[in-house]
Amino acid sequence: MAKVKAGRWEYTERELEKMFDEATVRGRLASKVEPQAKSAHYDRATNRVVVDLRNGATFIFPCELAQGLSGASVDDLALVELGPRGASLHWEKLDVDFSIVGLMSGVFGNKLWMTKLERRGGGGKGKPMMSAARRGARSIQGMKQTPSRSKLAKHLRQGKAQERT
Q1: Average confidence (pLDDT) per 10 residues, the chain, 165 residues
Q2: Residue 140: exposed, middle, or buried by beta-carbon count in 10 A (0-12, 13-18, 19+)?
Q3: What is the DSSP string of the chain?
Q4: How far apart are CA 92 and CA 81, in angstroms?
């Protein structure tokens, strides 16, 4: 059987057909469970992007939160396009893309951008804001084994006492 070279990998036709079939199944599943945009437009009055979803819901986000959109001209922001299956938003001139799932999950850029957003959002003395759940998870991460409830409670109390100082 002939092999097909794709980059540095080689596949048989049978392997390619199997991968295609698997990808098709994943795509069909994603189209049923992931939010998909029906339309999107830029609202100049509020400086927000409005995304109407196929399920009838609407998702709106301010442009200043999104990496690559913050500070862009209103004319450029108005050129928002939908990606394939309505799974993403694209601004050709700005070379910016966002997945609908990512935006709805609160991901508005890379890690550095998100850290800057956290700092800008408050949390005095330039420290990023952190939820109680994340503080608890962060303090537990240093533990080497699964603790008993009493040890876990003691560890969490110590972490809260350290945060107060």
Answers
A1: 83 92 88 89 98 95 96 97 94 96 95 92 43 40 44 56 51
A2: middle
A3: --EEEETTEEEEHHHHHHHHHHHHHHHHHHHHHS--EEEEEEETTTTEEEEEETTS-EEEEEGGGSTTTTT--HHHHTT-EE-GGG-EEEETTTTEEEEHHHHHTT--S-HHHHHHHHHHT--TTTPPP--HHHHHHHHHHT-SSPPPHHHHHHHHHHHHHHHH-
A4: 8
Q: Domain 37-117, what fold?
A: NE0471 N-terminal domain-like (3.30.2020)
Sequence letter at residue 132 = A
Q: Are 41 and 49 in contact (CB under 8 A)?
A: yes
**pTM greater than the 0.70 cutoff:** no
* Residue boundaries of the structural domains of the chain: 3-33, 37-117, 132-164
